[in-house]
Amino acid sequence: MNGLLIVNAFLKNGKFGALYDLLADAARRLEIGLSVKTNAETVSALYRGAFRPEAYDFCLFWDKDVQLAAQLEGQGLRLFNSSDAVAACDDKALTYLRLKPCGLPMPDTVIAPKTFSNVGYTDLTFAREIGAAMGYPLIVKECFGSFGMQVYWCRDEAALTERVYSLDGAPFLFQKPVLESLGRDVRVNVVGDRAVAAMLRHSESGDFRSNLTIGGSMEPHALTRAEEALAVRAVQALGLDFAGVDLLFGRDGPLLCEVNSNAHFATTLQCTGVNMAEEILRHIRSVCLV
Hints:
Blueprint: E1 2-7, H1 14-29, E2 33-38, H2 39-48, E3 58-62, H3 66-74, E4 79-80, H4 83-90, H5 92-99, E5 109-111, H6 125-134, E6 138-142, E7 151-154, H7 157-166, E8 172-175, E9 184-191, E10 194-202, E11 217-220, H8 225-237, E12 242-250, E13 253-260, H9 266-272, H10 276-288
């Protein structure tokens, strides 16, 4: 079995390289051929007619270049994850819109009205009205962002309007914080229809965010039935083959925070001993051999 691993040409830090190495090592152990190509060289090959989809049984698409993903699907390749699923996870507003009709418990959320990057938010009346109705403190979360770096705590109206103005038109959400879960969440790694690993993440600095990239710590977590069911339902609803699902501790049970189609899993291996690269590639093999 031969597969194609698509990675981003322009993300070259050690975190991404370590993840690609884990996937390559797992492929060798499972006797799966895995050719690594960047999105940039694949775009060029497609235009020049040099891309040969028949050489691959599958494509492990480890990027958010959804336009390229759709082109590869048009070439007949089975992508893990699909272009539609990646797009739904990359945009937090779209994630919310896809999951809300499914009845999955999530924090109270409002999608900000659209503006444009060359215009920005020139009238903040909507922000003041939503802030007053939602109550303070509240969270502003950019629709496109990773590692907790585009998530902001707004303690009052002044902080909210200052933050919204500073976004320069970037799409965002208003979200009511889950006070019971401040600085704590659970990362659940789902493959297929199974939750295969979970870890509790918590802030060591008092930050309301628990992301490891900004200083959080981790420990293995034994999932409750409700947590496992919620994580798996979210992955199924979005049409994902695998994902990292972030859950919050709500007053009445777990709440869905985010779903990551390309979740980094080196820390999961370190924390739980579960090698997500092997889990993902075993799943791909089982699907492709049916």
